[in-house]
Amino acid sequence: MREVIEKLLILQDRDRRIMRLRDQLARFEPERQMLQAKTSGTQAALDAAKLRVKQIESERKELELQVQAKKTQIEKYALQQFQTKKNEEYRALAHEMETCKADIVKIEDKEIELMEQAEAAQKQVVAATGEANEAKKLMDSQVKELDIRETALKTEVAELEGNRDTLTTGVDESTLGRYSRLLKNKGENVIVGIQHGVCGGCHMKFPMQIVVACQGEKELTTCPNCGRILYYTRDMDLAVTE
């Protein structure tokens, strides 16, 4: 039975390494998503800056159309003035023309404000472009590093799993089945030692007969509480504590 326990301990060590590597592998995709989220944030800021530039340009063109419409209206009033022979109608048309000219001044003032806003927005686009490019460059570098590490870990896992079966030679199917179930349910701590008569897994205090059975190594001894497989070495203190 000592030989079986020794093989199981070696197998457990191998499975621990595999499980820990798989745990590391499981973290790569969340890391990628986190990096992509950071890049998406800078890209969203850039898109917002570009959209603002387009909005300002659209507002500016709308003001240009309004100015052109006012000028067309002035030309229309001027023609009507030329055609009218009534002083009152002439003065009314002149008033409308002055109103249109005043409106044009106000619109052109707004155009100047929009030009200033457009200049500031363009600067924001330049800054946001730089930030987005730097973020993408950094992300690409970090993702590449993640890919390299992931590939290396996958290779290592494949190598560890590749010859895992050779470690079970000489261990009967029943014992391997129990080990596998424990590994699934208890995690990486399946084959445990006893110290001072206590289970190395669940820390339950054993009666003397279990300690003696474990020490005798004549049959596979398990913890009556958690079911883990027990073993001992000469440096362990098997005495049951009071």
Written overview of the protein:
There is one protein chain. β1 (191-195) and β2 form a beta hairpin. The relative contact order is 0.13. This protein has 242 residues and is mainly alpha-helical. The protein folds into 2 domains: 14-164, Helix Hairpins, CATH 1.10.287; 172-231, no CATH class. It is built from 5 helices and 3 strands; from the N terminus they run ααααββαβ. The protein has a 3-stranded mixed beta sheet. 74% of the residues lie in helices and 4% in strands.
List the helices and strands and how they pair.
Blueprint lengths: L1 H25 L1 H56 L3 H76 L10 H14 L4 E5 L2 E2 L8 H9 L12 E3 L11
Parallel strand pairs: 1-3
Antiparallel strand pairs: 1-2
Helix pairs in contact: 1-3, 2-3
Helix content: over 70%
Query: How are the strands ordered across the major sheet?
Result: 2-1-3
**How many extended strands?**
3
Low-pLDDT parts are none
- Count up the helices: 5
Any guess at the CATH architecture of the largest domain? Orthogonal Bundle
Helix-and-strand structural type: mainly alpha
Largest sheet: 3 strands, mixed
Q: Any idea of the CATH topology of the largest domain?
A: Helix Hairpins
Mean pLDDT: 92
Total domains, how many? 2
Name the shape in a single word.
rod-shaped
In what range is the share of β-strand residues? under 5%
* Element string (H = helix, E = strand): HHHHEEHE
Based on CA atoms alone, the radius of gyration comes out at 41 Å
